[in-house]
Amino acid sequence: MPDRLRFVSASHRLPVWMLVAIAALPIGAEAMACSLVTTTDGLAGDSTASTPGTNSEAGAEVETKDAGNDDARAAAIPDDAGSCRTLREVGVSASGVYTLQGDAGAYQAYCDMDSFGGGWTLVTAPMIASDQGVQDYAPSSPSKVDVGHVTGDHGGIGFTVDMVTGYCSDPPKPAPGHAFTVAGPDGWKQIMATYTFRGSAGCWILFGDSYGTDTNVRPFELGTDLFDRDKNMAHDATGAVVPYAGLTNQCADVENFWDPAYKSLTRSIRVVQRRRAEDKPAGLAAAGDCGNMGWDLTDIYVR
C-alpha cells in the first residue's frame, strides 16, 4: 500500500481554515491530506474534543441504520469495496454500517470514519483468527489467566482478562497473558484498540514487545505509532498523571499501568500499531507478572 496510508506525527494541529480547504479538495487529494495526523506535544487526537469508540453493554448487535447524511455516504461507493479504508479513500466520510465484499461474499461492517483520519473496519468475532491465554511460565509458580469475551458497540468483539501471578522477577519469553490475531479484511495495515487496566502488577509487557507472544505487529514506536490523548492515563513515581512515553516492557513502578499505588484508578490508553507481515494474521498481546492484574481490550479496529 502507498505511504499515504501511514500516519506520521507533526508539530502543529491543522487550523480550521486548512480543514475547510481540505474538504474542498478533489477526492484523491482529500484522501491523501486526511492520511496525515498532526499532533501537539507528541499526542495524537484533538485536545479539546472527546473521541469515539467507548465501551458498551455486552450483547449489542451490529446496527443497521444509515450512517450520517446522504452526501457523506454517497461519495461514489464502490460495489466491490473490501474494507472501510477503501471507502474512505474514495471520499466516504460518515461513520456507520456499510456493505463490504469478503472472500465469502458480501457482509455488513461498521466503519469508523472519524478516528485518526478514518477508514477503520470494526473487528467482530468471525474475523478472529486466533485467541489464546498464556498460562504456565514458571514450574514453581504457574499463572492463572481467565479470558472472557464481550460484545461492544456495533457488534465489535472485546476481551476481558484477569490474571493471578506470583513470579516476581523478569518474565520469561513469552510472558503469561493473552494474545489474539485478526484475519482480513483486505490486507489491513494498522490495528487500533483501547486498553483499560485493573489491579496491580510488578511487571507488564504491551504493544508488540518481543517478550510477549508474537502477534505479527511492530513494537510500538513513539513518534511513528499513535496513541489517543483522550484515552491515555499513566503515572510517574510521584503519582502525577503523565503522557505515555512509549514503554513496551516495564518492571518498575515508574509509568506502570498496573502500579499497586494506583490500582483504584481507571487507567486506559488507545493505541494504533502497524502490522508486520501481510501474508499472515496479526493482532495484539498483553502480559505481566507479580500481582493480581486485569485488563479490558475493546473497540478493536483494523485499517
Topology readout:
Blueprint: H1 16-23, H2 27-33, H3 70-73, H4 84-89, E1 96-102, E2 105-112, E3 120-122, E4 128-134, E5 144-151, E6 157-165, E7 177-182, E8 190-199, E9 203-205, E10 226-232, E11 234-235, E12 241-242, E13 249-250, E14 267-274, E15 282-289, E16 291-302
Antiparallel strand pairs: 1-2, 2-3, 3-16, 4-7, 5-6, 6-16, 7-15, 8-14, 8-16, 9-13, 9-15, 10-14, 11-12
Biased composition (Polar residues): 46-57
Domain Fibrinogen C-terminal: 84-125
InterPro entries: Fibrinogen-like_C (IPR036056), Fibrinogen_a/b/g_C_1 (IPR014716), Fibrinogen_a/b/g_C_dom (IPR002181)
Spans with pLDDT under 50 lasting ≥5 residues? 1-69
Task: List the secondary-structure elements in sequence, H or E.
Answer: HHHHEEEEEEEEEEEEEEEE
Mean pLDDT: 73
Query: What class do helices, strands and sheet pairing give?
Result: mainly beta
Corresponding CATH architecture of the domain at 126-302: Sandwich
Number of strands: 16
Largest sheet: 9 strands, antiparallel
Rg, Cα atoms, Å: 19 Å
Strand residue percentage: 25-35%
Helical element count? 4
CATH fold-type name of the domain at 126-302? Jelly Rolls
Output the CATH class name of the domain at 126-302.
Mainly Beta
Assign a percent range to the helix content: under 10%
N-C termini distance: 11 Å
Shape estimate: globular
Organism: Labilithrix luteola
Pfam families: Fibrinogen_C (PF00147)
Domain Fibrinogen C-terminal: 84-125
Biased composition (Polar residues): 46-57
